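Thread title: Can someone regenerate the structure for this chain?

I was given the following input by a collaborator and told the matching structure tokens would be attached. They weren't. Posting the sequence so someone can regenerate them.
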Amino acid sequence: MSYSDFNPVTDYLYPIYNPKLFKKVVSRAAYIIKKILIKTGFDTIAFTGSSGAAIAYPVSYKLDVPLTHIRKGKRHHCSYQVEGRYDIEKYIILDDRVDSGDTLLRIIKSMNKAVHEPELVGIVLYNEPQSLPSSDWVYHKKHIEQVIGIDKKVEIFNFCLY
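Best answer:
Regenerated them for you:
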């Protein structure tokens, strides 16, 4: 079976499971995140869950930026709820998409609890093209700002997986 015949079972992360598309997704994410890095000087990428990890690990490698992993719930193989870099000044969150904002809130609260006064400077979200029409992005961005109580100093980016 060749990769062109590969048809993964997934709701929305098809490009993550397809090696050819995954390379493009990682390159695109690294390009966007590098721009934020140059502009803000962040020193850590925070993420949670498998969809966050899928992009966070290769982008961290490509850009040489450390990671902080926020574990979900209390049942996991690690004794730490927050794992990775702790000496953080500025960080971004990398995640797949935002519905209610609960995941972003959990990451922010966990970071504030584990790290002394970290500054959130960016949120980078990725999803499939059809999952968030551009006409809805302005509304969606305002929703994120309201839910997590951030100000205009936090860059919020959304990019399509392919």
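The mean pLDDT is 81.
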